[in-house]
Amino acid sequence: MIPRYARPEMVAIWSPETKFRIWFEIEAHALSAMAEMGRVPKEAAEKVWEKGGAATFDVERIDEIEREVKHDVIAFLTHLSEIVGPEARFVHQGMTSSDVLDTCLSVQLARAADLLLADLDRLLEALKTRAYEHKDTPTIGRSHGIHAEPTTFGLKLAQAYAEFARNRERLVAARAEIATCAISGAVGTFANIDPKVEEYVAEKMGLKPEPVSTQVIPRDRHAAFFATLAVIASSMERLATEIRHLQRTEVLEAEEYFSPGQKGSSAMPHKRNPVLSENLTGLARMVRSYALPAMENVALWHERDISHSSVERMIGPDATITLDFALARLAGTIEKLVVYPERMQQNLDKLAGLHNSQRVMLALTQAGMSREDSYRLVQKHAMKTWERGADFLSELKADPEVTQKIPVSELEAMFDLGYHTKHVDTIFARVFGAS
Amino acid sequence: MIPRYARPEMVAIWSPETKFRIWFEIEAHALSAMAEMGRVPKEAAEKVWEKGGAATFDVERIDEIEREVKHDVIAFLTHLSEIVGPEARFVHQGMTSSDVLDTCLSVQLARAADLLLADLDRLLEALKTRAYEHKDTPTIGRSHGIHAEPTTFGLKLAQAYAEFARNRERLVAARAEIATCAISGAVGTFANIDPKVEEYVAEKMGLKPEPVSTQVIPRDRHAAFFATLAVIASSMERLATEIRHLQRTEVLEAEEYFSPGQKGSSAMPHKRNPVLSENLTGLARMVRSYALPAMENVALWHERDISHSSVERMIGPDATITLDFALARLAGTIEKLVVYPERMQQNLDKLAGLHNSQRVMLALTQAGMSREDSYRLVQKHAMKTWERGADFLSELKADPEVTQKIPVSELEAMFDLGYHTKHVDTIFARVFGAS
Amino acid sequence: MIPRYARPEMVAIWSPETKFRIWFEIEAHALSAMAEMGRVPKEAAEKVWEKGGAATFDVERIDEIEREVKHDVIAFLTHLSEIVGPEARFVHQGMTSSDVLDTCLSVQLARAADLLLADLDRLLEALKTRAYEHKDTPTIGRSHGIHAEPTTFGLKLAQAYAEFARNRERLVAARAEIATCAISGAVGTFANIDPKVEEYVAEKMGLKPEPVSTQVIPRDRHAAFFATLAVIASSMERLATEIRHLQRTEVLEAEEYFSPGQKGSSAMPHKRNPVLSENLTGLARMVRSYALPAMENVALWHERDISHSSVERMIGPDATITLDFALARLAGTIEKLVVYPERMQQNLDKLAGLHNSQRVMLALTQAGMSREDSYRLVQKHAMKTWERGADFLSELKADPEVTQKIPVSELEAMFDLGYHTKHVDTIFARVFGAS
Amino acid sequence: MIPRYARPEMVAIWSPETKFRIWFEIEAHALSAMAEMGRVPKEAAEKVWEKGGAATFDVERIDEIEREVKHDVIAFLTHLSEIVGPEARFVHQGMTSSDVLDTCLSVQLARAADLLLADLDRLLEALKTRAYEHKDTPTIGRSHGIHAEPTTFGLKLAQAYAEFARNRERLVAARAEIATCAISGAVGTFANIDPKVEEYVAEKMGLKPEPVSTQVIPRDRHAAFFATLAVIASSMERLATEIRHLQRTEVLEAEEYFSPGQKGSSAMPHKRNPVLSENLTGLARMVRSYALPAMENVALWHERDISHSSVERMIGPDATITLDFALARLAGTIEKLVVYPERMQQNLDKLAGLHNSQRVMLALTQAGMSREDSYRLVQKHAMKTWERGADFLSELKADPEVTQKIPVSELEAMFDLGYHTKHVDTIFARVFGAS
Predict the structure, then answer these.
(1) Residue A250 counted as domain residue
(2) CATH number for the domain including B171?
């Protein structure tokens, strides 16, 4: 995580202050549960809530203690006992550090997922708005970077909408998977703590109890979570790449908003570059890469080893902060994207009607010509357009082999654009529901 | 994919014969739909079904045609017209190659998922059986590779069961995501084909219509699919690693089945190695690695480029065949795993009662000692055991600072194993449901 | 590896026949060394060379034996003794399977590297030829996909040449690293075999002795090798991406050769797509992905575990065969690339002289204007061109703030192309040496 | 990068202060070169060096300007002109931002490599010292986690030494590759700047001129650099994994240093865990993962896009800071590793002589028995030891089939340890040179 690519709300989730506050809540709720069960004095629990609830935990003091004991949870508990007094000895009883650490990580990832879901909602809204705005804006569809057949700019955005709607569903599932609570002791047997404590804490923290933990919550949950972020990042890269293509000098069908005062290049005053989308492409690579160590984290030894910990200290913040920043940037880019319908039309006209080649070929086939022959016939004329800029329709009209099968008037009628856009409403209804 | 790590049923899904058969079905169903809608003669559709349905497609002939036209679908269609005759010209009308290729890939991945689900079911069954068999077999739980507190071997397997049950759910979701059908033409606009054809083919092929496609089905679906396989592979690595650890000479609590006639080492006749589990570890690395190019495939240019194709030709078979083989091998390994409960007990006794250190510490705390003091006191005695092999209980009993707080009889009672296993039934009920 | 993306010479390196032949040579050379040292009868070595040298090893028979003993090297040795007779008992004495397997893999990877080096040489030759052909062909340089300043098409190719020349050096280094021989016994101590045997075999097989092995050759060597292939693949992706961009309909400055009879699209007869370059993009993703499991293979347990083996059985062939095919395809693509200089000139003219914006700005600065002011002044005029298609030079000439600093005649002189290409010879000399 | 896993010297390389200082030096040296060539007034260069050399660049002020102009280099140049005055207008003439940014990154990566090389030297020194200390300490070699044949602990460390010595060579090569300078203008043509400026700056900054750049230094260099770090990380994981294995409760042949006051577990006072090595395992995963986006960065569009930038802002610091921290931690772990030779001997004795099985088999073969028969005979006795703990030598002596071929006295002599360690000096000489 670097400040340049970070937003405060997501950063706050990963601050030491937030972490210690969550730790406190987990410990205090566990204590309350034990007090309810008569295992510890109710007064102790009350005292802990009272003193700890009011306190601001001193991050530097905790760090100082950790340097001595070389154990972060013990350092926190020591600091807590400084705040609470002797009643603190009932805190953490029968628990192991991972009970606190893992449950805290679940809370943090669930909160991070909530922010990411809000980001996706904003992006979806932007895509929907712009899709309807350009539902009927014709533009050439391209396969292999080569003009294929017409589509509309709204359809492009509808496609992106559908893709991010899927990503939203994936993230909802991943959030549900990650939101579990383990308060099960040193090897997950509840030897020194009752399973009811886990259930109590889970409910209070908005989590579900982990059905069976070892010392830790199993890391396949986290792997699935970060893999989901990686898939979202990949979709983000796709949309960013589309914008980069559209802004190319030779294409220039759309452009990132370029604010007054902005400088595109230190050397070349004429430049307006799609730097946001390029930046998103790079950020997507990062978010994608974090899925790998998350997957390697799954195979912990026996009831746990701590190799996952350093990885998660890094990718927990890095992946969520980067993706949050990137999704917000992407939403903003879409919201403010400058679209050039005239240029789209110009580009559409560039291949002089070639995009109707399939329709002509089909008509020849319908008129009795074999598929092979009609393909060769149409390809022959198409290549003249491709190579020498000939007008496709004129070439067809001048060829008796064609006009024998298709009257000139029908040929001409085949070059209307509406043919290609007649199902746009159907597709919009599929994507956005009945309007 | 290499034959050594492949099973015939999964291999068959990816054979050219299967592929061409699915292509035929897609084309023929599309033709039927068009015939029903009156777009093509019913007789043509009947002829295609009759001739094509009876034919065995000649893979070598298709390859030969492809070498000339450099296009696989055109090569197939040409061959099909050789079989069907002139009626074949109605086939593929208004469709694009990707309509066939992508829908076929959906069918193949869905079928592959079905085999993998069956593999998971077998593995889950094996884990459950062995978990119940060893529900009460005591064994030491280890964190960081170091003895922690006792658990049971059944609990270890129950944990694996829960993990693979989650993986099963993930795969069900991924299968649903991948099982879509696109018959939408060159840029997804249905310009030359009616959306009803897509709906018809989807239903016949057991798929759902893709709400909005470009020339292709969007690749975030495939990325999510292969990422799911990668997560499953990671869980597989975890279980394989557990077995490898248990079979270590110094641990030897369980062992892969070693068949008569088997040779562990060409040089050392005494060896019995956990080679299956080590092999699974390597295969897991492979399946995991395939998720990356699948994710890089998402950002296709505009309405598609074909960079995804070579990747999928490789990872489609490679990932599913490898994972199928590996899951079957893992299931077999669990089914036949030789377990040594006596050795588990011996290892459990190795640290001379140290695994009760937490319980003693808690009792001291309950008796009024501060958390810090009781930790230091117990640690002092524990280190004598750790470093000089002293008997932990004897040391405690000999220390008045301890016995002042806890009577000797209570101390002794703290070393019973049942304390650690009292919640095993609760956990089993959580994992396997009420028995 | 799939046949579609494979060439016979590289495939042959990985055939069972080649493998068993190399195994035989390693075993037989080791035997010769032992015979020279008087450890085994000379006649035995002679008999083994005579019988084994003449034999064709029966792959199916070896597979059959392996199914019983579950050990590939033992299966081979058993088959060898069937061929050689009782003298075969001296074969493999004091050796371990990995001595044979790892040394064989070194030979295979070194041979594969030799083919890849030849591929790179062909590619370099093609790049050099085309670079000189287009040394002075002007074309617009683009940053961010946006026109920047002019360059030449030859310079683009010279850049690619320099990049692949670096890749060649990397591969030479990686080949040297991988070409080691280990004949050191079960844990690398030479307990049952003399280090001189290793030295003898190494020399005969064209390898260097591994200074210190465990049971295996350390896998950091292989990781470095596959990482090098991954870097080469990334460069390949870069060049392929460049071609894909140049062939875009709106750019069309260069085009993959499109052979007579070729069909670009099953549906659209007008299409000519950069399918080779797109294919190379996908293959690059695959080769890159193989580096990961190779790196995960490094951390074998103690003196070895066999988790690396399944990985290498797959990526050994997959990575080298795919990269060999891809490099050959790339070389062919460059050799036959159709270049359109006229179109390059048209695109160059598209921004109406804007690519001289920096030069004008520098001149204003030289004439005493502050950097900030000259930037703003030039940007103002540039944006008019950008947004409304105004002629950049005319705008400048019409602005007294400009002409006060730069006389009109000097302004006009600033729009010559030679200014941008004056150092092309210098750069070519750097890349290709003095011509 | 997070403070917990960072050391100040490496962090300083990546601070904004260091970056701006390097930017200044690049700009000022370029200005000096231009002054020497008579392109700009000498006084301007002197003034820039004088004012800029004395200044502390105000990071907050630069950030403030960047928020307006949205361009970091322009922001810096604006700030520089605030410091220097009107002479600043000669700075950056004919250069492009990437000239500064890329050359700066080269300097930072080269400096980072120097620190990493020092880390490797410390680690190598530690490995060598401990290797000689334990050159003759016998320990069991293990393959597949199973006892194989004896080796010495010094040999294990010598192996690690040789591996890290290779890594050192790789890093030296990667450093040389990355240390290039590009001052070549907007598309690498030197249109507005003389190549001599690049040569001048390169020499002053300790770099080599990039033979042919586009707008940027080609990213295959960076990919190779980060791939090298990833390989080093993989070796680190291997050594860390070895330590984790050796510290397992059942093995306990070596242990990380456990300082007084340290707490192994918050719950279990008896624990001493290999947490440093586990931590290194996790950090290795991270460093490895950074190689991927670095490789994806290679395929920039045309003369550059800026997608690489965000990646490098993250992995530049993250990879080098993490690896620096990890290598230092690994060196410290080796330096202070507590080794238990008695425990090694106990474990060595565990399989009751089984590790001599190969030697006995070879002797039987030498005595005329077929390889197959001797294998079966030795395996039969070995399995009795394996399964029932029988003494291997006694079993052999009691079997006439054995003693017929090998006299009892010779059998007994086969169980001496010196047989296995006789070539240790040879191997040490190979690794460390003649002592």
Answers:
(1) yes
(2) 1.20.200.10
The contacts of residue C95 (CB under 8 Å, 6+ apart) are: B266, B267, C27, C30, C183, C185, C192, C193
Taking the CA of residue B382 as centre, how many other CA atoms within 13 Å lie in the half-sphere pointing to its CB? 25
Q: Which of these three, B30, B62, B93, is where a domain ends?
A: B93
Instruction: Let me know if D423 is a catalytic residue.
Output: no
CA B91 – CA C160 distance, rounded (Å): 45
Total tally of structural domains belonging to chain D: 3
In a domain, D422, yes or no: no
**Does residue A422 fall inside a structural domain?**
no
Nearest-angstrom CA–CA distance, D386 and D354: 8
In contact, C371 and D40? CB cutoff 8 Å: no
Inter-axis angle of helices A424-432 and A97-133, to 10 degrees? Answer: 150
Neighbours of C6 (CB within 10 A): 17
Cα gap B72→C212, rounded to integer Å: 51
Q: Are strands C208-209 and C180-181 parallel, antiparallel or unpaired?
A: parallel
pTM exceeds 0.90: yes
pLDDT for the residue numbered B356 = 85
Whether C84 and C123 map to the same domain: the answer is no
For residue A383, the enclosing domain spans 354-414
State the pLDDT at residue A246: 98
Please say which residue of D345, D378, D396 terminates a domain. Answer: D345
Cβ neighbours around C25 below 10 Å, total: 19
Does residue D158 sit within a domain?
yes
pLDDT in tens, C295-340: 999 999 999 999 999 999 999 999 999 999 999 999 999 999 999 9
- β-partners of residue B150 are B140
**D150 φ, ψ to 5°?**
-70, 150
The secondary structure of C13-61 as a DSSP string is: HTSHHHHHHHHHHHHHHHHHHHHHTTSS-HHHHHHHHHHHHHPPP-HHH
Task: Tell me phi and psi for residue B92, to 5 degrees.
Answer: 75, 10
With CB atoms and an 8 Å threshold, state whether B215 touches A189. no
Residues in contact with C291: Cβ distance below 8 Å, sequence separation at least 6, in sequence order: C223, C226, C227, C229, C230, D227, D291, D295
Do D211 and C162 make contact, defined as CB atoms within 8 angstroms?
Answer: yes
In whole numbers, what is the pLDDT of chain C averaged over residues? 94
- Kindly identify which residue of chain C lies nearest to residue A374, measuring between CA atoms: C269
SS3 D140: strand
- ipTM for the complex shown: 0.95
The answer to whether D300 and A273 have CB atoms below 8 angstroms apart is no
Structure tokens at A239: 């949309």
Which of A250, A263, A273 has the CB atom closest to C144's CB atom?
A273
Higher pLDDT, C241 or B360: C241
Chain C residues with CB inside 8 Å of D97's CB? Answer: none
Note whether C206 and C333 are same-domain residues.
Answer: yes
Q: How many CB atoms lie within 10 A of CB D426?
A: 15
Q: Chain C closest CA to A245's CA: distance in Å?
A: 8
Give the domain CATH number at C367: 1.10.40.30
| A-interface mutation test, from D285, D308, D313, D330, most A Cβ less than 10 A away | D285
D184, pLDDT greater than 60: yes
Q: Residue B358 — very low, low, confident or very high, per pLDDT cuts 50/70/90?
A: confident
Distance from CA of A92 to the nearest CA of B (A): 10
State the Cα–Cα distance between residues A190 and B425, nearest whole angstrom.
12
Considering the domain architecture, whether residues B339 and B365 belong to the same structural domain is answered as no
- The string of pLDDT tens digits covering residues B386-417 is 777 788 888 899 999 999 999 999 888 888 88
Q: Are A215 and A187 in contact (CB under 8 A)?
A: yes
| Residue B57 per-residue DSSP state | P
Q: What is the pLDDT of residues B126-159, one digit of tens each?
A: 999 999 999 999 999 999 999 999 999 999 999 9
